[in-house]
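3.2 Worked example (two chains)
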Amino acid sequence: MPLNFIYIIFIMIRIYYCNSASDAIPEEISDYRREKILSASNLSQRQRMINTARALKAGFAELGINENDVIYGFQKNGKPYAQNFPEVYFSISHTDNLSIVAFYDREIGIDCENSQRDISTDILNRYFSKEEVTAFSDSAITLWVTKEAFVKYTGKGFAAGRNEIKIPYFEDELKLDGLWFKKLSIDGHTVVICSDKSDEIVIKKAL
């Protein structure tokens, strides 16, 4: 096992993002990722799948792993994991022009959204408590992304997991019910990670 693998897994959270406009399928990626790209229903979805593949490839490579060697498995609600590398945990998020992947040595959830996105009051009231909507009246994106990061951490999905925790207002960092939430800004997007341990974060752009 490479020394950098041990260092990365046990010392820090690594985030890889990609916002490339290239529609070329990356070389040496897993059959699963290639099939995801080829099965995209439109150009926007294809670009997201390509950027996700690039971020995964870069992240696994820095751990000393070829992404095309990864055997993907899926939890009940679709959260992916690496069956043949059980010591590696990762979480994926993407929006129209950004794909992002977080790697850690324990469960982690990540979500991203364009910071300028407008979320209607009707949607907020449908999915969040009155207290949450009031607390985040000026920063609805933070509430949305934080809840998404939480349900990606638990693997239960948004519909089943969103009411398991009530999010109080926070600026950059929150510790709640044994969990740690960290808010970041990457390429004009609001990003939140969720884990049960606070740690150093390294952010890299995948080429």
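3.2.1 Second chain
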Amino acid sequence: MNTLERYGVKSLTTNGVTLLGILLAIELILKRFTIGPDVVKVSLVFVVTTLIAYWFGPMWSVIIAAIGDILGTALSGQPIFIGFTLSAIVGALIYSLAFYNKESISLTRIIITSCIIAILVNLFMNTLWIKMLYNVDFWAYFNVRLVKNLITTPIQIIVIYLVLNYLPIKNIKQKIFK
């Protein structure tokens, strides 16, 4: 038994490492294609984060979230701010705790998870980071971000439900983690 397995973390197979690398690359590409200004960006990165959390669990999803945030920010030419990295880590951890090792992912579980992330990470943490970076009024940006999250969270819930309950996604999990 290796050190990671003592703590309940599965060792990665060659296929697992390859899949993580591909998902990290997809995440970096998706970070480049966002809609909206910095304070209300919309992207599809949450899909990749969800899949990593579902397939690989808390440890690997947190590591990939941190690496993806730091690399994505560095590649964009913007300065790295550890607060947003922390937000990415917390979001990945929440998805992992909700979805990892679950045979069936119910719509209720997805709604609760998405709402926790929308409120804790998107509204409170990220708005705090924006306030710290740009010295803006927290509540003014909170209200703008609240409207954005009221629109995007239901869409994310539907997308996550469709992705996690799509048979080929479940089959990949079975093939990678025999």
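3.3 Remarks
The mean pLDDT is 91.
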